[in-house]
Amino acid sequence: MRPNSRIDARSCCAAALVSLYVALFVQPPVMADENASASREIEAERFHQQVEPMLREHCYPCHSHAAGQMENGLALDWKSGWVEGGDRGPAIVPGKPDDSLVVRAIRHVDPDLKMPEEQLDPAEIETLVEWVRRGAFDDREITPIAKDAQPWWSLKPLASPPIPVVRPAAETGTIETGTVKVDAVTP
Ligand code: HEC
Predict the structure, then answer these.
(1) Ligand 1, atom 16: nearest CA belongs to which residue?
(2) Residue 116: CB partners within 8 Å, gap ≥ 6?
(3) 132 lines ligand 1 (CB under 6 A)
(4) Has residue 168 got a pLDDT over 70?
(5) Is any ligand 1 atom within 6 A of the Cβ of residue 114?
(6) C-alpha distances in angstroms, 69 versus 59, 64, 76?
């Protein structure tokens, strides 16, 4: 009986070690993944509920494809717009509000760059600053449709083309047989 109980004790110990290992090293990455997707969801919600509507109201009239206006080459209606920026370069430095042109513009700290003319209210400014400070989450990755762009042919609604009128032969002066004449090819 004794050797058996020693084995039991050893396997029990091993099992405990394995579960300790799993608890310490396997679970954290799984939790980290969950945390990452949860915080992505929070950032997305904040962006779409608070930041994007503000940009839409105060900036899109002069900086968007839809308005057909991109003053100084700056579009604020998609992420690449501010990443590349306008004439002065990238408009936002994620995590660094003080170095971001957009923040300088809305704070009216730069005499040449007061955007928009009528200053946003302090709560709106703080929302934008806080968004930049947290990393400027932005999932608007598709090029917006420009104001005068022709819609892609496959996105146009279906239309019935007019049916051609077939006039009787007598009227056109030709013989219409409904068959195609093919010249015989001699080999
Ligand atoms: C009524 C039109 C108008 C509105 C609204 C507007 N802008 Fe502008 N924006 C301009 C014009 C014009 C310029 C070029 C001004 C200059 O360079 O002196 C400009 C330039 C900028 C620039 C500098 C771009 C560069 O690289 O030179 C930034 C940043 C900017 N705007 C941010 C904003 C933000 C943020 C908003 C919204 C809160 C906004 N603007 C709203 C007209 C507008």
Answers:
(1) 113
(2) 58, 59, 62
(3) no
(4) no
(5) no
(6) 10, 6, 11
In the block, tokens 């806080």 appear at 130
**Residue owning the nearest CA to atom 35 of ligand 1:** 102
Nearest CA to ligand 1 atom 36: 59
36-85 pLDDT, tens digit per residue, is: 888 899 999 999 999 999 999 999 999 999 999 999 999 999 999 999 99
Give this prediction's pTM. 0.71
Tokens linked to 182: 């093919």
Asked which of 10-19, 42-51, 143-152 is least confident by mean pLDDT, the reply is 10-19
From the CB of 92, is ligand 1 less than 6 Å away? no
Q: How far apart (Å, rounded) are the C-alpha atoms in residues 147 and 68? A: 5
Residue 157 confidence (pLDDT) above 90:
no
Q: Ligand 1: does its nearest atom lie under 6 Å from the Cβ of 102?
A: yes
159 dihedral zone (left: phi>0; alpha: psi -120 to 50; beta): beta
